[in-house]
Design brief:
By secondary structure, this protein is mainly α. It has one domain. 78% of the residues lie in helices and 0% in strands. It is built from 9 helices and no strands. α3 crosses α9, α4 runs antiparallel to α8 and α8 packs across α9. The chain is globular and about 55 Å long.
């Protein structure tokens, strides 16, 4: 999946399209929730152990929810531009393209061991006091960003493969889905506001 995502996802959907799909989505959601907790400086309000627990629960739920909502949206909008994948195969593409994100969880083990609570906080006096820690912190961030970017590229390749699209057309499929989702959310918010009045 890291080096040849198109061929890998094709083998998977041809043989076992539901294999590990829920597990990968839940674990990838956990990984992404930890990243968001760090970006949002949740350590200013919670201990890192609590953040990990919250991320495990909320991230797993969000990952599986995103799998089903995303799968349905990508299937529907992809069919408008000639996509041929079933919803099951699109869910396989979403889940298996998250393999780099799942492996990125391993970065959190040394990250927490070296930086502790400050990996989640606004103020980082201990990290700033050590040039070595400061460079390591930057290196962890850069490596995580590279993995995130590659995971996105792998997702587009996997989606393109199952839909019969180029990578660029898969990006179009994704953008249309995001647009539709935003419209649905906007209509829902406006409807709720109108009902509340």
């Amino acid at each position: 999946m890291w080096t040849n995502p198109r061929a890998t996802i094709q083998r998977l959907v041809d043989s076992r399209p539901t294999h590990f799909v829920l597990f990968l989505s839940a674990v990838a959601g956990f990984s992404q929730a930890l990243d968001q907790a760090s970006v949002r400086n949740m350590g200013d309000s919670f201990e890192w152990q609590t953040i990990v627990l919250i991320s495990a629960i909320s991230g797993a739920f969000a990952g599986v929810l995103g799998l089903y909502v995303g799968g349905a949206l990508l299937r529907r909008t992809g069919s408008w531009i000639g996509g041929r994948a079933s919803t099951e195969n699109i869910r396989a593409a979403i889940a298996w393209s998250s393999v780099p994100t799942v492996w990125a969880l391993l970065l959190w083990l040394p990250g927490l061991a070296i930086f502790g609570q400050e990996i989640f906080t606004t103020e980082t006096p201990i990290i700033n006091a050590s040039t070595t820690r400061l460079y390591l912190f930057g290196g962890f961030g850069l490596f995580g960003a590279i993995i995130g970017l590659w995971a996105f590229v792998v997702f587009l390749m996997c989606l393109g493969q199952v839909q019969g699209f180029s990578t660029w057309k898969a990006l179009g499929n994704l953008l249309i889905s995001v647009g539709v989702l935003l419209i649905i959310v906007a209509i829902g918010v406006l409807g709720f506001m109108g009902f509340a009045q």
